Automatic annotation (TrEMBL):
A Gene Ontology term for the protein's cellular component: cytoplasm
Gene name in the database record: rsgA
Cofactor stoichiometry and binding remark: Binds 1 zinc ion per subunit.
Protein name: Small ribosomal subunit biogenesis GTPase RsgA
Protein residues bound to GTP: 136-139, 187-195
EC number(s) from the headed UniProt entry: 3.6.1.-
Family matches, as NCBIfam families: ribosome small subunit-dependent GTPase A
Species, as recorded: Lactobacillus helsingborgensis
GO molecular function annotations of the record: GTP binding; GTPase activity; metal ion binding; rRNA binding
Biased composition (Basic and acidic residues): 323-333
Similarity annotation: Belongs to the TRAFAC class YlqF/YawG GTPase family. RsgA subfamily.
The organism's taxonomic lineage, starting at the top: Bacteria, Bacillati, Bacillota, Bacilli, Lactobacillales
Positions of the EngC GTPase domain: 96-244
Amino acid sequence: MELGLNTYKQHEQVDDNATLGRISLNSAGMYKVIHLNGAEINAIPKNRTEQFLVGDWVALEPQADFDLINQRLPRYSTLGRLTGEGYHVQEKDAASNIDQLFICISMNKNFKSRRIKRYLYAFQKDDEYQTSLVLTKSDLNPESAEIAAQLADEFDIAVFATSSVTTEGIEGLRASIIPGQTVSFYGNSGVGKSTLVNAVAQKEVMATSHISGKTDKGRHTTSSSRLILIEQGDFVLIDTPGIKSVGVGASDLAQVFPEIVQLAQNCHFRNCKHIDEPGCAVKAAVKNGTLERKSYDQFLQLQEESQSTQGYLDAKTAKKLSRKAEGKREAMSKRNYRKPPM
Ligand SMILES: Nc1nc2c(ncn2[C@@H]2O[C@H](COP(=O)(O)OP(=O)(O)OP(=O)(O)O)[C@@H](O)[C@H]2O)c(=O)[nH]1
Ligand SMILES: [Zn+2]
């Protein structure tokens, strides 16, 4: 089983003399690396301030019982996520050097194809990795196959309708992974991602809900990404539990709709939302046919989602800040406490 080195060599030059490995775990700056022979060992960056992503290829300098990480080799892809850490929204990278991302959506009764568009805007990077869609729990919807075909057509990507109950689609999904590739699965909690990954890997690599239940026993409770070699499938899996909140930021909007940004410069109001404001140049352009109605509708939909993402992140930040303030108050009252004179 290789670590994905051949795939990596197709993208980047590699010095064959270097002792190579891949970052397999990053837990608050404590790293583990996997060697080409599959051994996993603790690793410390030579340059203490340098940060690495799970999936990074690195040149190593083996020591007695750990490795020094000498150098990071170039990344050909990064899997990003939006987080609300600190005071503002920022994009964080969760993994690197992946070849395929499987976005998992459950076919339960809450299925909404609208969500797919949002996920694709957030994650699709055609020049870095391939993105495919997985409709999980297809046994719950008799129309799964038709829906899969429609979505494949609409978004021009591979779509797999899978069920871990009937095993439908699992073989096809596994076959789509080229040996040596590094893959990652994204999915909201409960979509059946762990069950699916185990079925594809033919191995219990992830703890599933029905086994762990409410006790959380044996469940991966860490919030750090992990790199796992899947021998049976001859591929590398990067599990990124960190990608939980997916959203569309304002900068994504501008990138996806540059023509609207251009038009908006002529709107009467600087903060025009192009919905029903007077003097809106964007609406005028739809009316006179310079802007396609379809783009405009898509823009509005995404703008709405971007606002709710922002709202969600703002709410999280507010909560954090109020907790911080509470802690401060507590610290203050502690500080004010004076030891009574003896
Ligand atoms: N009907 C049906 N249920 C499934 C299928 N796959 C998983 N489930 C059930 O869905 C629930 C969630 O499955 P998990 O695999 O743990 O889901 P997950 O997405 O990994 O969720 P987290 O562990 O919270 O991230 C469990 O009760 C599974 O038994 C499927 O193909 N069909
Ligand atoms: Zn406007």
